[in-house]
Design brief:
462 residues; alpha/beta; D-Maltodextrin-Binding Protein, domain 2; five-stranded mixed β-sheet; 19 helices
């Protein structure tokens, strides 16, 4: 392809992009290919807008302004989907099944890229990235997050993240716990939560996302933050290409969930199973001093910034961060999980050139930096990561970037979504007392074999 893609933005994007905007879902006819009734002069953009995390809404609207100014006669139509992750994925898949409703540009979780590409929902972007002068600024490992099983690029990364323990210094002081807090094992975390329960009984000691309503949030931010810190800490053997069964680490991770929820140091099960729990944690419990410890993501403070949806001026004085320790303190001593989101072009678009141009505008240097600051994302562009404005915009960036060396990534296979769902089933069975960790792990193994086949599994440790 001979065209060189450059940003349509002729001015520096203000950080006010981060301000929350109330979106109206415009459910008009789409700009799709095939027999669809779409208009090639309209770019339909679908993205998630849920709870307090509405930075995408503002970012897409700001991008639309510069895109439309550079492309007279073209319009951007927004389809903000107000849904928790799993519901968002379902609604996006339904849209993609029909040429009449499929989006031109979509907000795509990195763990969905391979399965959605294999399903034919996404357009390969290699001819565009080859001609895009900004592509070299993206880190190679970030680029890999948008690659399908065929080796082609289907998504352009927006940023990444890590996960750790957030703790309330004021509540720790009331409980007589040390600040800074440096837990070395799982038991240290549980002991601190027990101390809070005894000394500050009116607050939730510890939140770990769990259960089916939380979907991938429970799997990744809860279960995998535990599993990948155990001696058998993985779901999938990259070398053999097989999924693991009979994993003691799997049982032990469910045991931690049992300790939290059956031990009375977590939220009540009915609270934890509320689909809005993440919004409640970030928007109410932490700012209001109702939660002592939260196993959560690097993006949390984005909503508390002056430009966020729930400004909390004192957040950096009140909240501390500690790496999630490995189960028994074994090397490397801490663990994390990383993910992130991409922007992708729908395979049914009538105007792939303009769809990619929209993405190139959204994720040029200024656009990426503005979004990463607003959403408290770890930068995936070297020029953003090195920019003093980005580095100085959030006091937690240094900490969350420092745990990248111990982070892990989900198995990005086409089967992962179904397997992740079965993990949430196991978690919920344990947290509600319906099954022991051993029973739930055995039931998961049976479901795993049913999904991938016995020849695609192996016993952990083999």
């Amino acid at each position: 392809m001979s065209r060189t893609f450059t940003s349509a933005r002729g001015r520096k994007r203000a950080l006010a992009v981060a301000a929350a905007a109330v979106a109206t879902a415009l459910l008009a006819s789409g700009c799709s290919g095939g027999a669809g009734s779409g208009d090639s002069d309209t770019i339909k953009v679908a993205y998630q807008k849920f709870g307090t995390f509405t930075q995408m809404d503002a970012h897409m609207k700001e991008t639309a302004k510069t895109f439309e100014a550079a492309n007279p006669g073209m319009k951007v139509e927004f389809v903000p989907i107000a849904a928790q992750n799993d519901d968002y994925f379902t609604k996006l898949a339904l849209m993609n099944r029909s040429a009449a409703t499929a989006p031109d540009v979509m907000y795509e979780d990195t763990f969905k890229v391979k399965s959605d590409a294999a399903a034919g929902y996404l357009l390969p972007l290699d001819e565009y990235t080859d001609a895009w002068e900004d592509w070299d600024a993206f880190y190679d490992n970030a680029k890999e997050a948008g690659v399908g099983e065929d080796g082609k690029t289907y998504g352009i990364p927006m940023g990444t993240d890590t996960r750790a323990l957030w703790y309330n210094k004021d509540l720790f002081a009331q409980a007589g716990l040390p600040v800074p807090w440096e837990p070395k094992t799982w038991q240290d975390v549980l002991d601190a939560a027990e101390t809070v329960k005894a000394k500050v009984p009116d607050v939730v000691p510890l939140n770990v996302y769990s259960g089916k309503p939380q979907g991938e949030g429970a799997t990744m931010q809860g279960f995998e933050m535990l599993l990948y810190g155990t001696p058998t800490g993985t779901l999938y053997d990259d070398e053999t290409g097989k999924w693991l069964t009979d994993s003691q680490g799997f049982v032990d991770s469910l045991g931690f969930i049992e300790d939290v929820y059956q031990g009375g140091i977590g939220p009540k099960p009915e609270e934890a199973l509320d689909t809005n729990i993440a919004t409640i944690v970030g928007g109410e419990w932490l700012p209001q001093g109702k939660l002592a410890i939260a196993l959560d993501g690097s993006w949390m403070s984005g909503t508390w910034l002056e430009t966020g949806t729930n400004p909390w001026p004192e957040w950096n004085d009140v909240m501390g961060q500690a790496p999630m320790p490995t189960q028994d303190g074994a090397k490397p001593g801490a663990t994390s999980m990383s993910g992130g989101w991409t922007l992708a072009v729908g395979s049914k678009t009538k105007n792939p050139d303009k769809a990619f141009e929209f993405i190139a505008d959204a994720l040029d240097k200024d656009g990426s930096q503005s979004y990463d600051i607003a959403a408290s994302q770890i930068a995936v562009r070297s020029d953003v990561a090195e920019d003093p404005e980005y580095v100085g915009s959030n006091p937690t960036f240094e900490f969350f970037s420092s745990i990248v060396p111990v982070t892990h990534f989900r198995p990005a296979t086409t089967d992962y979504s179904r397997i992740s769902n079965e993990i949430t089933v196991a978690m919920e069975a344990v947290m509600t007392g319906q099954q022991t960790p051993e029973e739930a792990a055995a039931a998961f193994d049976d479901q795993l074999v049913g999904i991938v086949g016995e020849d695609q599994t192996q016993k952990a440790g083999d």
